Model the fold of this input.
Amino acid sequence: MDYAKNYERCCLESTNALQRWFMQVMTRKAQAIGQKGHKIWSLKYAIDEYFQGNTNLRVLDCGAWNGWFLSYDSPQISQRIALDFDAHFGPQLLSEGVGFVLADMEKGYFPLAAGSIDLLAMTSTLEHLGCPEKIATEIYRVLKPGGVVFITVPDIMKYKFRFWNDITHKRPFTRDALAFLFETHGFDTLELCSYNHNLFVAGNLFPRPIHRFLMRFRGDALLYIGRKPAP
Done:
């Protein structure tokens, strides 16, 4: 199954005129700070919010697809690593200075050293895996003490049967299920809220209370951010 190659064509909705305008605005805003495009804002948010003043950060994106989450290039980050079971985007990512690890997370193991990652992202990926308990264990293992995990999944309470439009979806999640999964694996919950990617990015244009309020109504996914406790 050529999943990475066909994901955008088969599983993503077409952008409308308003969304295209919004991406242009965010691209110009990114270029004004020396970045390439509009895809930088999720990682920039995580770095600014949870790693202010930190340097030499190692960031891992699990289920990275085309590496969009890793597009933010900051002097605070020493290494960006994309992990995926499909090598389709591997050469492109390597040419962009992003490390690539080919691994099948369904086996419940990440081929990375324990305590080696500062920030681990998994966006729209956990719902594709049938072993979330093993995944949470591995996330905890590879994160450094004080490391942060950034997770997004569809909210089954809002997606309902649309969740199964993607035939590779395996595990639906609710807000309580996400909290239960990560807190029982030792994480401290920092944030758990409704999530809409465009409105989340819009937080860089508007005060956070405004876009958090809007995501309550427009967010059909969930955002979980947790921290591995430091000794």
About this structure: The radius of gyration is 17 Å. Residues 18 and 118 are 35 Å apart (CA to CA). The first strand starts at residue 57 and ends at 62.
